[in-house]
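Researcher: Here's a chain I'd like modeled. Treat it as a single chain, no partners, no ligands.
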Amino acid sequence: MTKQRTNKRPKSYYIKSAHKKGKYAEQELDAGMKGFIITCNYNEFKCRQDAYQLLNEYADEMYSPAVQGFVKEEESDDDDEEDFDLALKKEVSSIKERKQFRFQALKTSANNVLFIKADIENPCELAHYILSDLQETKKLKSRAILRLLPVSGTCKTYDDKLEQLADKIVAPHFEFSCKTYMYVIKIRINTTVKSKTIMGILDRIIRRNEDLNHRANMDNPELVILVEVIRNVCCMSVIKDFKKFRKYNLHSIVEVLEDKKEGKEESKRDGEIEENQDSAETEEKKDSGETGENKDSGEKEKHKDSGANNTSGNGKPEEIKTEKAEQDKCEGLQKAGGEQKEPTTDKKMVDVNTIKEEAVDVDDEPKLETNASN
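Model: Modeled as a single isolated chain. C-alpha cells:
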C-alpha cells in the first residue's frame, strides 16, 4: 500500500509559478530589444567570444569606450529606524548588484543562431561600419562568425504588433523619395506565421503614399527589409548595401576580394606572356623580311650580271658557257673515280703544233730555191 501525499500544493500555486519569470528569464530573446543576429557553424561558444571582441572593438572606435557600471537597487534615505531587519535588507540590496554591459548574448533556442542585445541607438550603422572596414582592410577578424545581421527592433508575432513595429522602423525610409526595395524573410521554429502575411503588412505600409512610386528590385536594391522570426519573436530592420556586402557575410567579402586579386594577377601574367609572344613574332617577321629582301637583291644582281654578259659581244658569253659545261663534266668523272681528260686542250695543242710544222715547211722551201739558183 502506497501512502497518499497529504501536503499537496493547491492548483493556484502552479498557476502563479507559471506566470513568474525564472532566474535566467532576462537572458532570452524577447520583444522590445535591439541588437544583432549572428550565425555560425557548430561552434557557438567561439562565435560568442568573437562577437563580443568584434563588436566592442568597433563600438569603441565609433562611439566612446564603454564604462561598465553597476545598477543598484533603490535604497531608502530614512535613517531614523535602524533596526536589525533594515540593516540586513541594506546589506542584501548592496550585494544584489547587476553589471550593465554594452553587449549581452541571449538564448534563441535555434541551432547556430545567436542574438546579442545591444545598448546602442542604431545597430545598422555599427554593422555597416564593421563590414565597410573589413572590405577596405581585407582582413578576416573572425572564423566562427558567418553573418552579422543588425536588428532595429523586436516584437511578438501578432499581426497588430508586426504592423506597429513596421510602422516604426520601415515607414520613415519610404516617406520622402522613391526607392527600390527587397524583402528578405526567414522563419525559424514557427509554423503559424507565414511569409505572405508579413509581406502583405509591409506592402500596405510602403505603398501608403500613392504619390511615390516605390519599386521592388531583386538585383540591386537601395534598401533591404530584413525580417527574422525566431519562435514567437519577430526581428526587423532596414539595411543598405546588401548585395555589395554579400548578404552581410564576413567570409564571402574577404574571399571575393582575394579572388579578384588572383584574377588580376593572372590577367597581368597572361598579358605579359601575350606581349612577349607578339614581340617574338614581330622580330621573326622582321628577320624573315630582311632575308627575303637580301634574296631578292641577290637575284636582281645575278640578273644584272647575266644581262651585262649577254650584251658584251664577240661571242665571249657562249665560250664561257661551254667551258663551264666542260668543267662540270670533268668534276663528274672525278667523283665517279675516272681519270681527268681534257680533250679540248689536247686538240688545241695538236692543232698548234701542226700549224707550226706547216709554217716551218713553208718558210724552208723558198730558201732552198734561192740556193739552187745561186
